[in-house]
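lol forgot to send this yesterday, sorry. struct tokens for the thing we talked abt
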């Protein structure tokens, strides 16, 4: 028997990495998304689960699991030299929303995100001047986080579409 060789590194997991900042981690990104995409999730004690609409049929709601909002931004991670989705909790998303209100375009904006030391440390965001597409060339097309989340949650994206009818509220910034 011969030894099997391969040329292309096999892709495992989601096509695009979803980054959730760890304690003391800092990233510098350039945003491709025009706007943050928000979803409701449930926390089961070990991992996140999707929250489904209508909520009376949602398995997480039926089990009484706590729900939270998560916001995603498609961006370029400069240190890793790759495209990623950055995951923001509601408080950090509210900080971003203060500078980029609903309806504004975030494409090209640079963000520096930093989590403090400790498990419960707050995620802070610094908003840096946007890059100029006339200088950098056109930015890559923004990607929707839907397909990646479906992969992470082992859901069929054709069956579990976004619910378009609901406007996702962003909580007020706690001062
Ligand atoms: Zn739910």
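and heres what i got for the seq, position by position
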């Amino acid at each position: 028997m011969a030894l099997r060789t391969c040329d292309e590194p096999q892709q495992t997991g989601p096509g695009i990495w979803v980054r959730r900042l760890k304690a003391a981690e800092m990233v510098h990104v350039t945003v491709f998304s025009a706007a943050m995409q928000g979803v409701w999730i449930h926390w089961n004690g070990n991992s996140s689960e999707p929250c489904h609409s209508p909520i009376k049929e949602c398995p997480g709601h039926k089990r009484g699991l706590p729900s939270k909002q998560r916001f995603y931004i498609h961006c370029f991670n400069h240190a890793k030299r790759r495209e990623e989705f950055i995951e923001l909790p509601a408080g950090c998303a509210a900080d971003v929303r203060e500078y980029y209100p609903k309806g504004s375009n975030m494409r090209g904006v640079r963000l520096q995100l930093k989590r403090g030391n400790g498990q419960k440390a707050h995620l802070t965001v610094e908003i840096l001047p946007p890059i100029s597409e006339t200088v950098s060339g056109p930015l890559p097309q923004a990607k929707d986080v839907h397909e990646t989340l479906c992969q992470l949650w082992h859901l069929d994206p054709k069956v579990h579409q976004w619910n378009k009818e609901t406007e996702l509220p962003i909580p007020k910034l706690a001062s």
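Residues 42, 51-52, 55, 58, 60-61, 67 surround zinc ion (CB under 6 Å). anyway ping me if u want another try
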